[in-house]
């Protein structure tokens, strides 16, 4: 969820009308020895998606009217033979296409059956409904844990007959190194740029809801902060918000060791609404939510304190995530940045490294990709692609996708990309099947994956576009919705489809 050399292929011996950059020998069409003696007049015929004649790629790029740089590559999925390319070795910020690499890194290191675990551990026995000792809420780095998961832990604790504890309550989050945010250059209030911890909850976001009311206690508004899931949505005190009279900034945050105190500009709020805000101390967020839910089960617990060391004890309740391949498939579909970072750092630690920062973990992943796939331009600073300093070339992505193969695990974890007509409407029953990963930052748009043509041909491709000059001029306060970014991205996506259609026309010719 991302909201915040040059050189064409040789065009000789390309059939007239085929996409520039696709060698005729690469698609199995013989080159004409010479011009015909007489030019026949073609009969007009209707064309539909997947049947249009190919055009010159330079014309397609010019019509896109896209500022910045563009790089792409397309290859036969069976042989790996390159069928067309433009700036294939140029390195771009891959945005969320980075998650393709993170997915493969996680599966290769941890295995598809890996599960994250969150546990309740007691240091003493249970007697007459009381734990004679301390209780620990222990995180295992699970990026998918939500309030409903904590509800299941509370239910399991109740099944053990627990109503209270005689000791203290602790929260342990040392499974992963704490990161205040994924990308510090992004505004503090963006929900897709959360903290990372060994104990994460609700993707480390809290739901802020507001409604203008005469009796509202916050400058004429009633506000709530909730740890929303499907079954449980308790209100939260550690993350609070006040509506204030000011023009800017829209949001401001004061974060302490155990709390987040937000203010929001009144002028930015309408009559009512809601949005997710990030949580900067996720372990205390999870501890408070668990305490509230436990009370609903009749279990009285003291306020949780942070624990640096995990003592030996008895596991009273264990909540596990789904299998890693399922977790990653959902990450690829919804592009959740927290999941990518948690999986990436967990994989790095499993390889024996002890990264204190995301950059250190990303360097290990970079080395893994270079040694296993022979990439040349790859360089990562995180595992989600949120950082604009990540780099990858279209040629590198071709190597990755081709090595994975058409029937490898990657294609099954990607999502189907819907093609659109000239009016922007979704095309039903398109003869072109695209399965890929998207990537979007301000003035960065990427798409990479697999294509099945109407004649059952198979392609692998990558299209990267970026205008880093415009991006560099955006102030931090404007990085959620900078001027011109939406229209630029729309043109970039249209270009991606035009290129795919052209490749299909060339390959199926």
Q: Sketch the major β-sheet.
A: 6 strands, antiparallel
User: Spans with pLDDT under 50 lasting ≥5 residues?
Assistant: 2-51
CATH class of the largest domain: Alpha Beta
Secondary-structure-derived class:
alpha+beta
Average pLDDT figure: 90
The strand count comes to 22
Strand line-up of the largest beta sheet: 2-1-22-21-20-19
- Cα Rg: 26 Å
What is the H level of CATH, i.e. the homologous superfamily of the largest domain?
DD-peptidase/beta-lactamase superfamily
CATH arch. level architecture of the largest domain? 3-Layer(aba) Sandwich
What would you say this structure looks like, in words?
This protein has 509 residues and is of the alpha+beta class. The protein has 2 domains: 68-111 and 325-507, 3-Layer(aba) Sandwich (Beta-lactamase), CATH 3.40.710; 117-320, no CATH class. Helix content is 26%, strand content 22%. It has 11 helices and 22 strands. The protein has a 6-stranded antiparallel beta sheet with strand order 2-1-22-21-20-19, with helices on both faces. Strands 16-9-7-4-17 form a 5-stranded mixed beta sheet, with helices on one face. A hairpin with a 5-residue loop joins strand 1 and strand 2 (82-86). Helix 2 (98-110) packs antiparallel against helix 5 and helix 6 (337-350) packs across helix 7 (358-373). The protein is globular. The model is unreliable at 2-51 (pLDDT under 50).
